[in-house]
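Deliverable D4.2, example record:
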Amino acid sequence: MTGKTIARGFTLTALLAAAIGASAQAPTAVPFQTTAYTPHSKVYKVDSRDIVLAPGKGIEVKYHIQKGATMVYSWKSTAVVIFEFHGEPDVLPANAPKGYYETHEKDDVGKDQSHGTFVSPSTGIHGWYWKNGTTKDVTIHLTTAGFYDAAKEFSSAGQKDLPVHDAK
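Output generated by the structure prediction step:
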């Protein structure tokens, strides 16, 4: 029997069929996916690093991820930091303004940790900007694993490639 039982053995499907008449077709149950499986041709990467931010300073760490690829992440800091999790697509949407990016999560008040799973909406670099709004150094410990192929750091000193490693 399909449909949701609502009273005395009647189903929602049966009641809808009765309501719209015998000549009309009753709604059909649609199967739904209960798992997600996405094969990849390469082993996933892992990265773990400590980042020390001086008072008033900011830094970005971003990973190059293909559209639909997944990254699992956790970061914790020794004090509350202002942050934004965002991405910059390799191919910008039509009429995108200069400096275009997509915000995934933003917190102007700040947190001392965040954990989650990210499925990339576009091929490009995705990651975090953190800013230390305190008067003391703050250490951020970042751990990621996922189907990314590169990582970069952006700071007032410029940008640099960061090493990422294949999972063992």
